[in-house]
Amino acid sequence: MRRECQRLEALGKGLGPTPAGLPVLTEVKTRALPGGCDAEAREQFLLHGTKPETLLAILANGPNERFSSGLFGNGTYFAEDAAKIDQYTGLDPAYDKKSALHARLYKQTRHPGKVFYCLVCRVALGHFIRTKEGAPTRRRALEATTARQRMCSRSQATRASLRP
Q1: Nearest CA to 138 among 130, 149, 127, 146?
Q2: Is residue 66 part of a domain?
Q3: Domain tally for the chain?
Q4: Is residue 104 part of a domain?
Q5: Per-position pLDDT tens, the chain of length 164
Q6: Could you list the residue range(s) of the whole structural domain that residue 53 is in?
Q7: Does the pTM exceed 0.70?
Q8: Is 108 a member of any domain?
Q9: Which of 91, 126, 128 lies closest to 112 in space, CA to CA?
């Protein structure tokens, strides 16, 4: 990711200065996590809430922007505040021996009952929108879509450059 950011900067298509308001709230709490974040690539640890029925697919394949829609359209949504992601989680009430998810997660430990799943993800921010408003204006929604498309094309270029 860092090389891709450097390449884009050299082409005059860089991300520009970091927007005001950063660092994100999760930065202090996640400093002890392994791997760390690359500031040059604008990586941050952020939270993603999900329902039990989608967790196994996310763990196997990673988040997929085609299966998530929200206020700004299809995308993969992350937040710096657990109070925001809790509305996207769902209750996993008890162990189910038929559940593929439970077979994987609870082999060596007991299902505690009443579980809500939150993922801590290392995310390259790229072009993003930070808002406190409940509904975007038409212009902001268009800007979000354009920024997301730019980020997706950069992500595809990065993945292509990593292939053998």
Answers
A1: 146
A2: yes
A3: 1
A4: no
A5: 567 666 766 776 665 655 555 555 677 777 778 888 887 778 888 999 999 999 999 999 888 887 777 777 788 888 888 888 888 899 999 999 999 999 999 999 999 999 999 999 988 887 666 666 655 555 555 565 555 555 544 444 444 434 44
A6: 2-87+118-162
A7: no
A8: no
A9: 91
